Amino acid sequence: MSRPAAIPVADRVHARRWIVLAILSGSLLLIAMDTTILNVAFPSLVADLQPGAVEQLWIIDAYALALSGLLVTAGALGDRWGRKKLLLYGFGLFALASLAAVFATEAWQVIAARALLGVGGAAIMPATLSILRHVFADPRERAFAYAVWSAVMGGGMALGPVVGGLLVQEHGWTSAFLLNVPIALAVIIFGAWLLPESYAPRAGSWDWTGVVQSVVGMVALAAGIKQLGKSGLGSPLAWCLLLLAAIVLTLFVRRQLRLTVPLLQVRLFAHRAFSVSAVALFLGMVALGAVLFLLTQWFQYAQGYSPLQAGLHVLPAPLALVATSLLAPTLMRKMPVRHVMGTGLVLMAAGLALPFLAQDSNDQLGYPVMAAALALLGFGSGLAMTVASVTLMAATPSEHVSGAAAIEETCYELGAAMGVASLGSLAGALYRNNLPDSVTGPARDSVGEGAYAAQELGGAPGASLLSQVAQAFTQGMTPAFAAGAALTLLAAAAVWAWIPRDLRPTENAEH
Predict the structure, then answer these.
(1) pLDDT per residue over 297-319, tens digit each?
(2) What 3-state DSSP class applies to 5?
């Protein structure tokens, strides 16, 4: 009796493609939430472990520095070693690092755990997009898969404070890390079973010099941007770090251009659709990162909401983002890409400008105005960033997809950090400028310090101080939002000027 013919590997992969999308989306949701969940858990962590001021900065920054520094290397390593394998090892490290944070009793242990979480995240994030590109051969289906990816990424970042608020309120700060463990283990189990392996084999030896240059350059760049956000434009350390980043990354780019088989194909930026999409992603994240950073403070300190209430009040943005992310592929089939992406960026600008334009004569903002602004921001970012992601990946030859994924993730990470550093610093400077001279001491440093001082003062004097602090922060926040609107309009102008009229990523053949 003859044995049934074996099902070809390609057919098995095609049949499982939606299951693969579900697994990768679940894994990405974990990573996305982890970028913002610490914002809610941090006060509880500080109260428990009592880290010093420098240790607090490292607890916050260790994750982003490790992640930003290793994205390019991880993308190239996945091509050689196997993207599935790298993703599963990344989740294994993610689970172990989370457990280490749960059982930490000293601040340095949390810092080390956060750094390891960043290493795990760098292994995971480029692999998700690379595997999607391998699994979805049809351009239309691939565009929808990227849309789901973008919805999960943006929605997860905004949902982090909500989930974190629920967990921390009931179980303390360690629960924010413990949440990672069962999800990571589930991804490892189902991923080992159902995810396909894929490679992009490259001849030649591993470029260790390029690895060192990319890691040092990207860590210096991320650290310099973050230092600007903390210490302002007058910080010598920030400018030294940025100068180091400029020198090392210039050497890295020149080396990659000389190599026959580079660690990162920097010539991808010669493609207008690729480079403009990367700029749109970066500038969009500058605005979105600043909004999430500033609104979390505004809701908690100026409006007096709990962390959970603050997270819930931000929900119009992720809900709108998810809706338009999933709608974007359909619009891309019916309209030129540049119109869809440009319209999304204009909607983002409208959402950012609305609070500045809608303040009353006493510089007060009601929640209906802020909810409308958040909805516009979500609608716009869902459209613009999904279309930018699809366009960027469609403009990339299949053998360079991991490098493109690393570039896209870097735009997300550095864009959010730059938003906090630039627009967050602008809001802080305007806050201090708008405070009455009668407000002195730590209350002038930040809205958080001002709210704490008002609480300590208590009674009518405390209420008066809190009102002054809240008004000054609102007066500083809304012009920063308006500056973000100008950046997104600049990105929209670049999209309409430089993306080809006939570009249709959902129709183009595979490179």
Answers:
(1) 888 888 888 777 887 888 898 88
(2) coil
